[in-house]
Amino acid sequence: MTNYHLTCSWETVDGVLVLRPMGYLNDQTERGFEQLLSEIADGNCRVVIDCSDLVHISSIGFGALLAIAAEYRRSGGDLRFACLQASLARALTLAFGSFFRLYDRPLDAVRSFGTVAAG
To answer: Comparing C-alpha atoms, which of 45, 50, 55, 105 is closest to residue 79?
Structure first.
């Protein structure tokens, strides 16, 4: 069995958590990802995932993202994506239509929350 890994870095930009996962979001990593996100978000329900270094998202990973986004929306926030590889963007769009908002750059996704980001 292949071992897949997911590591994350993050920062807060104008009150929006920008998360940068690196690796695979699948059945082996999704629980750790959800736990980490819960810990670092600390109640912040405005989150951007910068997918520049995300290699793959499995159906289980997509399900976790859908649940997280729904939870954030109930709290007045959202989960948004930036820098998705074309194949992942197609999969996300085909599976979930316009449920997720996709952006070319993390800063565009941050600004979509109505904040004014410097730079």
So the answer is: 45
Query: What is this structure's pTM?
Result: 0.89
Cβ contact 83:104 at 8 Å: yes
Q: Which helix (H) or strand (E) holds 87?
A: helix 86-96
pLDDT tens-digit series, residues 91-114? 888 888 888 999 999 999 999 998
83 is a domain residue: yes
Tell me the chain's radius of gyration from C-alpha atoms. 13
How would you classify residue 23: left for phi > 0, otherwise alpha for psi between -120 and 50, otherwise beta?
Answer: left
CATH of the domain at 41: 3.30.750.24
Question: Which residue, 47, 45, 64, is CA-closest to 6?
Answer: 64
* CA gap 17, 6 in Å, rounded: 18
